[in-house]
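Ticket #4471: structure export looks truncated?
Reporter: QA, pipeline team
Priority: medium

Steps to reproduce: submit the single chain below to the structure queue and open the exported record.
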Amino acid sequence: MVSIISDFCLKANGFLTQRFESVNADKHSLGKNLQSLCFE
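Actual output as written to the record:
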């Protein structure tokens, strides 16, 4: 179960990074939010 969630988080993080790579501030805050959601 944990590995499935981790895999989803990695894919979502990569997707968000691609979508928002031109907007560094948004990417940074989204990445931090995703990390706290997935790994804390």
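Status: closed, not a bug. The export was complete when the record was re-opened. Leaving a note from the reviewer for reference: The chain is about 85% helix and 0% strand.
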